[in-house]
Design goal:
This protein is mainly alpha-helical. The chain contains 3 helices and 2 strands; from the N terminus they run H-H-E-E-H.
């Protein structure tokens, strides 16, 4: 039985190994880069996309709309309220 779980070490062992791997891949530095021009470009692009599409709002009620699954029927009451 122990052999079947050999590739799944106990949680503390996994945590320690993960921390060691992170330290190996991403060593600690005295200073970290907080932002880059690439990040700023992506952020600006997302802002333009959001501005273009605008918030998904039901203008009459001032609430966000939720997408329904294809074929789902619209309901006027909450499932929790329908029973009571």
């Amino acid at each position: 039985m122990a052999k079947s779980f050999a590739d799944h070490p106990q949680t503390p062992d996994r945590i320690l190994r993960t921390q060691e791997e992170i330290a190996r891949i991403l060593p600690a530095r005295e200073e970290y880069m907080v932002t880059t021009s690439e990040f700023d470009e992506v952020k600006a692009r997302l802002a333009r996309i959001e501005k273009k599409h605008g918030p998904d709002r039901d203008e009459k009620k001032g609430r966000s709309r939720r997408a329904r699954a294809p074929g789902a029927a619209a309901t006027t009451t909450s499932p929790r309220c329908a029973a009571g």
